Known about the structure:
Layout: H1 15-20, E1 27-33, H2 39-52, E2 57-61, E3 74-78, E4 93-97, H3 107-123, E5 128-132, H4 143-154, E6 158-162, H5 169-175, E7 182-186, H6 197-211, E8 216-221, E9 226-228, E10 237-242, E11 248-258, E12 263-268, E13 278-286, E14 293-295
Parallel strand pairs: 1-5, 1-6, 2-5, 6-7, 9-13
Antiparallel strand pairs: 2-3, 3-4, 8-12, 10-11, 10-13, 11-12, 13-14
Amino acid sequence: MGGFGVEFSKIEIPAEWEDLTKDDLQGVILVIGASDAGKTTFARYLYQQLRGKGISAAYLDGDPGQGSLGPPGTMTLASGDLRRALLPEGADRKRWFVGSTSPKGHMLPVVVGAQHLAQAAFQSGMKCLVYDTTGLVEPDQGGAALKLAKIDLLRPPLVVAIQRHRELEALLRPLRRFKRLRLVELQPAAAVVGRSREARQRSRASRYEEYFSPAQEMSLFWPQMAVVPAPHFTPNRLLGFEGKHGYLQGLGILLESDRQTRRITVLTPLSSLHKVEVLRIGDLAVSPVTYRDEFV
């Protein structure tokens, strides 16, 4: 469930959820589950409960496709009021560019981004980080391996697994024997409902449209920055403008390119590129008219 605001007054909170918030929680709290299992609903609930108890907590929206705190193709670290969903990158949020709405084929950027964002949270003085992960859990698609890699890297003391049936069993069997973490298995809240592929597409288009609403066309000489993986520009390609620490400064949509002058025209909400060191080319095309995306 990926809306910008979760109205918990309309949800019957399971007793197991309430019991968990009574514990002394710290470190990374990794929330895993398949798509539409209610990860975001639970993660938002837990984050709000921690803040309500006066605990310094941050929230990592780690789903580049169906996240709610940033434009698609990104991961967002936030603190404070999560209802301010698409605020620009700043003091209370950092973003990492994945360049795709699926972790499949982009697992390294997802894992690297998770490490950097988690590190940033704790360096800023946070006691807890609630990490809302992607819905990719199928072992044959690399979902279980991706979750295990995050656990090995981030060493969360608590993993919360939400499943409707037995879709997480391939992952949970070894986790139940891990002694370095605590595994809590929960059922989704009754009010959590699924969304169709078309509904997800419309949601992404709406988020892109909101993000790019203040955008303007900008021409830039691309050799002035590092272009990753290579300057192979195609129309409507999603671009990530990164600063010196690798965090996202802003997104762009490629409109035109001229190889003779080595200039490109982009649509971006950024007013200046003077802090940009890396231009990263994503694996999505986003229409600057409809804001619908497709893989390239």
